[in-house]
Amino acid sequence: MKIEKRLNILIVSSSQRNESKSFETSEHLQKHIFESLPHVSSSILDLSIYPFLLDHYGYGRDHDKKQLDKSKKDVLDQLYHCDAVVFVVPEWGGMIPPALVNLLLLCANGSAQGLPLGHKPGFIVGISASGGGTYPISLLKGYAAKNSHLTWLPLHSVISNVDDFLNQDWSPEETNRFSQVQSRLLTGIKSLVIYANTLRNVRSELVTLSQKHPFGQ
Q: Which of 12, 52, 156, 181 is deepest in the core (most CB within 10 A)?
């Protein structure tokens, strides 16, 4: 695969807790995968930094409007300037964190004055402190693309027992359980890069079409 222009991949650490396992996992992916990919840059959007992101949906109305507007602009700038997104999503009682729901609401055409994730590929990494992690995949693939118009990869990855996973040596070529998860992550992110490189050549035309019917009906 030939990449003529450097790709910018945004990793969304979707927990609203400080020093979360989602953020640690995001850094883990940067270190072990993204730093070795040629012509690819990565950055992390940590949602714990923006707890009052969507004031106009009724949360945080007592907070400074200028600061809220600045937070929205900061986040939208990162979304608009990326070529693809990796969502690292903790499973909270079978659900996804409210901060991620807020982010997806912000990505709608009316809220964002456009479609910042329109026809950009997305790869989901579900994580769990125990044996879970699958529900974020179903929830996000079931509804999150409707108004954002992002493009989900058919691939995804689930990291159960995330603390144990983060303590493993990086060895995706091995056959043990954690190495197989590493291999799935590596395969998924390499696929994401191929999608991103291909879609950016047609994205502008596709987004123009999407804006005719931006709410997915």
A: 12
CA distance linking residue 14 with residue 104, whole number of Å:
11
Q: Of 44, 156, 151, 138, which is closest to residue 107 (Cα–Cα)?
A: 151
Minimal CA–CA distance to 24: which of 15, 35, 33? 15
For residue 140, the enclosing domain spans 7-210
Does residue 170 contact residue 182 with C-beta atoms inside 8 Å?
yes
Which DSSP category does 56 fall into? G
The count of domains in the chain is 1
pLDDT reported for residue 5? 82
Q: What are the Cα distances from residue 157, in Å, to 166, 204, 212?
A: 15, 29, 33
Q: Which residues of the chain have pLDDT under 70?
A: 1, 4, 53-64, 216-217
39 within some domain: yes
Provide the whole-model pTM: 0.94
- Helix (H) or strand (E) holding 4, with range, is none
Is 68 inside a domain boundary? Answer: yes
- CATH code, domain with 125: 3.40.50.360
Q: How many helices (H) and strands (E) does the chain have?
A: 9, 6
In-domain check, residue 176: yes
